[in-house]
Amino acid sequence: MIARVIPSTGESIPVIGLGTSGPFEVGADAAARAPLREVIDAFFEGGGRLIDTSPMYSTAEGVLGELLSQAQQKSCFMATKVWADGAAAGISQMNDSARLLKHRPLDLIQVHNLRDLDAQLRTLHAMKAEGQVRYVGITHYTVSAHAELARVIERGKLDFVQLNYSALTRDAESRLLPLAADRGVAVIVNRAFEDGRVFARLRGVPVPDWAADFEATSWAQVLLKFVIAHPAVTCVIPATGKVKNLRDNLAGGRGRLPDAAALRNIAAAVGA
Predict the structure, then answer these.
(1) Number of H helices, E strands in the chain
(2) How many domains does the chain have?
(3) Those residues with Cβ within 8 angstroms of residue 160's Cβ, 6 or more apart along the chain or in another chain
(4) CATH number of residue 250's parent domain
(5) Over the stretch 103-113, which tens digit does the pLDDT of each residue have?
(6) Do the beta carbons of residue 167 and residue 176 sit within 8 Å?
(7) Cβ neighbours of residue 196 under 8 Å, at least 6 residues apart?
(8) 272 pLDDT tier (thresholds 50, 70, 90)
(9) Rg for the chain (alpha carbons), in Å?
(10) Structural domain of 35
(11) What does the pLDDT look like over 55-99, one tens digit per residue?
(12) Which residues contact 117 (CB under 8 A, 6 or more apart)?
């Protein structure tokens, strides 16, 4: 799989990660968790590494902690978030996340949707200095938050920013992605499929012949390669609870990427 470098350290990670919002929010029932274990196994077998989760995603952290094998924990780049008000509540929540995920130190903690940003960033920078977390980041999932994400990046001392970007929603191209590249901030992309909305637009539409030019055989691969083709993007995190979809997504991180003409074709195909 294609890998990209985290600018602040030079560490590299594969471009296709795994999101957990939705599919990993299940109970303790073994039948509900069994397909997720298959997804996790296929993810690591296929060269994946970064898994993104959050205490906001109900049971997802605990499910991951129970399903990941010891070997998978060692190879996993575990990214979670803090979503709390006040320093004390944030510290308590992050400790709970590490316990549930069974992963210490956590690789990346992100301030989820910029909630109580200044207080949580102060805590995170102190934790990083003490070796309790390896990287610090911020997240949001809406275009309306891009200006605030940019302001935080400009203030400095961030390793990661997570943002929404897709062939259908390209607002991040104008300022946020170039700014992240200029300031040496790694980028995780969410909502590459627009929560499935883009597939509704493409229902019944065959994958165009020109997709073969960049080795894409499905619309999921086309859409993921659109995102990865931007040089500022470090990793994209589609969520799935199905092995078939997971393997399809991972294939989007291999082979050639779209050139400028192909990117225009993809945007036109989805009606951007």
Answers:
(1) 11, 10
(2) 1
(3) 6, 79, 108, 110, 135, 136, 137, 138, 185, 186, 187, 188, 234
(4) 3.20.20.100
(5) 999 999 999 99
(6) no
(7) none
(8) confident
(9) 18
(10) 3-270
(11) 999 999 999 999 999 999 999 999 999 999 999 999 999 999 999
(12) 111, 138, 152
Q: Is the peptide bond before 105 cis (omega within 30 degrees of 0)?
A: yes
| 169-184 per-residue burial string, b: 16 or more CB within 10 A, e: under 16 | bbbbeeebbebbbebe
Angle, alpha carbons 140-144-148 (nearest 5°): 65
How do residues 12-52 score in pLDDT, each as one tens digit? Answer: 999 999 999 999 999 999 999 999 999 999 999 999 999 99
Rounded Cα–Cα distance for residues 83 and 61 (Å): 13
Question: Closest by alpha carbon to 222, among 201, 243, 184, 232?
Answer: 201
Interatomic CA distance for residues 258 and 223, integer angstroms: 10
pLDDT given at position 130: 97
Instruction: Give the list of residues 6+ apart from residue 1 with CB closer than 8 angstroms, or none.
Output: 14, 15, 16, 46, 47, 48, 250, 253, 254
Give how far Cα 81 sits from Cα of 93, 144, 256, Å. Answer: 9, 20, 32
CA–CA separation, 44 and 71 (whole Å):
10
Q: How far apart are CA 224 and CA 247, in angstroms?
A: 13
pTM for the full model?
0.98
Q: What's the burial of 195, exposed, middle or buried (CB within 10 Å: 0-12/13-18/19+)?
A: middle
Token pair, residue 182, equals 């200029």
Q: Check: CB of residue 223 under 8 Å from CB of residue 257.
A: no
